[in-house]
Every structure is written in C-alpha cells, then in structure tokens.
Amino acid sequence: MASPFGDYLRLARAAFVLAREGVASRIDPAMRPPGSEPLFAAAKLIERRGPASSAARIGAALSRLGPSYVKLGQFLATRPDVVGPQLARDLELLQDRMPAFPQQIAEATIARNFDRPALEIYGTFGPALAAASIAQVHQGEVVDPEGTTRRVAVKVLRPDVQRRFRIDLSSFYRAARLGEHSSPEGRRLRLVAVVDTLARSVSMEMDLRLEAAALSELAQNTGEDEDFRVPAVDWDRTGREVLTTEWIDGIKLNDLDALRAAGHDLPRLGRIVMQSFLRHALRDGFFHADMHPGNLFVDAEGKLVAVDCGIMGRLGPKERRFLAEILYGFITRNWLRTAQVHFEAGYVPEHHSVEDFAQAIRAIGEPIYSRRADQISMAKLLTLLFEVTALFDMKTRPELLLLQKTMVVVEGVARNLDPQLDMWKTSEPVVRSWIERNLGPVGRMEEVAGGLGALGRSLQSLPDLVAQGQRIAAQLDAATRDGLALAPETTEAIGRAEGRGNRWMTVALWVIAALLAGHLLF
Asked: Where would I find the ABC1 atypical kinase-like domain in this sequence (predicted)?
C-alpha cells in the first residue's frame, strides 16, 4: 500500500507538470475550490509559453506523467462538471498513444504466458504497429494444422503496467477523498466513486482474457446484425497478458478518402455507427465504450468492425429504460414524461417538484427544435441534462459515465462521416423499437410472466425455509432446556472487557448472555 507521503509527493509532481503546460489556466474559475486563488496564481507564474495548442500541451503533460494519467485524462473528458467545459473539450482530443516497448520484451511476455517461445506459437511475429497506455499491437501469422496460414492481431500487455497503475490509483484516491472531505461539491460529484469507476475499468483492461470474453459476448449479441461485427478470438493463443484475434483487413473510419475511393456510402456508415451503439446499449445492455475512429473499420462487405474491447459498458434494465425514455421524451417533446422518468429511476430526490424539473428540461430541449439537424448534439444535450440535474440534487451516477463518454465519441465519429446527420431521425427507429418491445403490451406481458416466475420460485423454496426454521428452533430448545452454561471464552471476554473499562462492550456481552439464559426463543 502506498504511503501518504508518497501519494502527496506524486500529486505535487503531477500538479507541477500540469501547471507548467497551462492546465490550471484552462480550469473554469467557477470550478475552483474556495481559497485556492493563491495556488492558481502560482501556477500561472510557472506556466510555459509556447505556440502549441492547449490540447496538445495537455496531451504532452499527461503522456509525460504516464499511462495512468492518460487514462484519467480520457475519463475526465466526460466530466465537464468536474474539470469545466474548456478543459473537457481539450481532453476529448487526447489520444492514447505511448512509445512502443522493445520487441524482445513483447516476445518474452508471450513466452512467459505460454511456456513456449513466441516463434513456436506464431509463424511470424512482426514489430509493434500501435502502442497505447495499456498494451501494444503486433501483426503475426499462424499456421493451422491443415497447413493454411492466416494473419492475426497480437495484443501484448505493457510491462510493469499493473504496478504503475496501482501506485497512481492510490494517489488518485487520496486526492478524491481530500476533495470530498473539504468540499460539499466534491461530495455531490462523488469523486471517490469516479475513481472507483476508473479503477474497475483499468483493472479489467489489464487482464486480456477479460477483453477476449468481452469480444466473445459482443459477437454473440450481434451475431444476427447485418451491418456490425467484431473479430474472432483465437483462444489457444490468448492469456492474461496476450490476446490473439483475427486480423481485420479494412479501412479505418477516419480515412474518408479511402472510404470514398472504395465506394462506401459515408452517410450510411454514419447511421450504422450511431444505430449500432444505441442498439447494443438498449437491446443488449452491453456496449463498446471506446468507439473512437482508430478502433472502427469497414470491411470489404461494408460491415462496421469494432476492435479493442478493453473498455466495455453495461446498463441494467433500469438504466436502459431510463436512457430510452429520456431520448424518446426529447424526440417527442414530452418534457413531463422525461422528468417523471428521472423520479421513477430514483435519480432526483422526491422532495423536488416534477413540474419544476420538467420546466428545467424544457429549457434544454425546446431550443434544439429551432436549429438545423447538423447543429443538434445529443452528446451536448446529455451534458446539459446532467448539469441541470445538479440543481435538483441529482448525484453523479457512475453507471452512466461510460454511456455519456461513448455518446460523445460516437456522435463525433458519425458527424465526421456525415456532417448533416440528423441525430434524432437516426436514433428514433432504434429507440422507438425498444420502447414498443419493452414498454408495450408484449413487454408488459413478459414483465408479468417474470414476476409470476419469481413468485413461483419463492413458493417452491418455502417448505425448505420452514423446515430450516424448525431445525433452528429445535436446536435452541435443546441448548437451553437444562439451563445455559456460558463457555469459558465468553466469561473471559466479559472479564477482559470489564478490565479494560470498556463499558459498552461489557453491557453488550451481558445482554447477550441474559437473553440466552432467559430462553428467549423465536
């Protein structure tokens, strides 16, 4: 466990590096804690001058601090309520790129995972093609038993990354606890819960078997989708630090010229990106939460192919219903229903007025109907919605953080393919289909059937519960029939408690003894 002194030392170094690159100047003054003006004035004095953009300088600073800070920066891009809108916009441009580690280390990692040299597992194993904060990717070839050769993508975990993240997360927790302790706003934002979410996400990314399982689950969920797929996993060549998948021959979604040259319909691809994300989030409750253009390809058949499933999002039934009804409420301009959904989900405390909350939502929603389709941002709308909910004491919902982050990225990708994309018309068929399927007559009948099934299972277990209660009563009766003899350990514990002067422990022990001695049965 990291020491408090070490945590504060690392946080001080991080503060210096970030201040040097001008990050402090990008924080909205309204977001700064009370009494912090001297610190921000000092940060201004050490700020480095230069022609580079603020986004580039922030990226350079986070890269210098290491993989943990790159991940933290990407994560905070979804939290303008924490870092302010200016800094959040800069962080949205942050790319997860790190220097590649040496080829011999990658081959040693493979040998350690499979107890065989890398070139016995792969026919060929090329140099790193891309390196990020958690792992890097190589191209390899595999010779199957029948003699056919196929290309594979090999993802290898960065060396010592687990230890580095563990140390840095200790510092993040220290800062979050300090923020919650010193500020009511920090408690409302649930800073510790934010770090919890980051820690869970990163810990899953650092076991590549879990990414393989995510790919497999996503493939199963989307097996019947005509326009989306993920690469197949080579389980024989996958371990905790190594993931092998099918090699994808395709065009990256940000290479617009190559997509046009290949004859792809870019507006259609934009619709596929948006509708695939909503379909996975609503229908399956399991979605790719890192859908930036570098992770998305178009294959020769015109299918969207998503790679790198290290970060996945899950939504339970309540969250899926919340998302669907919120979007549908904005599509249909039903502000009262949109407000009611927040209360039904328990996101807004009941002491507030539903009508007042509906009025606040109307203030967000109505202006969008006077704008052109290409000026409407669903991601911005969700951000504004979460800002308004803060006025009504809605606490941060960690389970919605990845959803909001992914919505921002997906919308950007879709708009890059089709700047005129109408987000409402694109989303409406998926959302309406989910509403009709789950909240219509069929959904109600399935809900009733599910409730009856749960009741039936409870009734089936009732005889066992009654029998268990009878056995406990019989055992207590036998134990107390001839009087209660306190065990030596119990009397010694009472004596020790009295000796220490622990008055409340003594009272508790004697009360327990008296209850048993008085034959108090059920």
From this structure: 94-341
